[in-house]
Amino acid sequence: KLCQIHAVAGSNENTIVVVHAVGPVIMPWVNHTNVKAILWPGLPGQESGNAISDILFGDVNPSAKLPYTIAKDANDYPAKISREMDFAYAEGMYFGYRWFDKHRIVPQYEFGYGLSYTTFGYSHLTMDPIVGGTEDPENLKVTIRVKIKNTGKFDGAEVAQLYLSYPEIAQEPPRILRGFEKVFLAIGQETYVSFDLRKTELSYYSVKKHAWVVPQGDFMAHIGASSRNIKGTVQFTL
């Protein structure tokens, strides 16, 4: 496959690579000067041809986001290939983008990444007054709002993502995805997107108490277009 991509890109200055794969693949050809775009359908099924042509010819504006992290090098992943089928999953809770964040590894394409034929702007990141508290976790609610505007030349959809950083006592990864919302916006249209964080989203599992616990301390809610493209952050204390 690598030879085919290099052969085509070597003779065509407007090469688009379409990747059919069940998961991340290493792409050493990504910086080839003639590779102008990458389309990642995954395994779309029998309508693959129609779906791909709709996007390539502009009949449909793509809006998907990566459900995993694509590394620059296979050694950047914690799990290693074993021909003896003996795998040691020693990374614990630091899998996927959490591993890359913890070790500050720069990926090729981060979790939640995805392009569109249009562009979007984020602004007016706010938080409503907190309802309840750690003493009454069942009724606890933290609401985060952000305004998203279609700033480009095409109608399109954006997937806003909320990542949460916990107080140090929770010993959680640097950021954890705790919500996402997809909004369709016409050219110039804008709307508010809201995220409600309740006990489920705010808790961590305490091995000492053998229960889910809402920790006391400072939280940070990060709103972004991907796990690495953070548009704004708000801090709150419980």
Verbal overview:
Helices cover 12% and strands 32% of the residues. By secondary structure, the chain is mainly beta. The strands form four sheets. Strands 6-5-10-11 form a four-stranded antiparallel sheet, with no helix packed on it. Strand 10 (218-224) and strand 11 form a beta hairpin. Its EC number is 3.2.1.21. It is found in: Secreted.
State the oligomer.
single chain
Q: Estimate the strand proportion.
A: 25-35%
Q: What is the average of the pLDDT values?
A: 94
The CATH class of the largest domain is: Mainly Beta
Low-pLDDT segments: none
The radius of gyration computed from the alpha-carbon positions, rounded to a whole number of angstroms, is 21 Å
Structural class, by secondary structure, is mainly beta
User: What's the helix-strand series?
Assistant: HEEHHEEEEEHEEEE
Tally the beta strands: 11
- Indicate the CATH architecture of the largest domain: Sandwich
Helix content: 10-25%
CATH topology label of the largest domain: Immunoglobulin-like
CATH superfamily of the largest domain: Immunoglobulins
The biggest beta sheet, please? Answer: 4 strands, antiparallel
Distance between the termini: 52 Å
Integer count of domains = 2
Strand arrangement, largest sheet? 6-5-10-11
| SS field, number of helical segments | 4
Q: How does the overall form come out from the CA principal axes?
A: globular
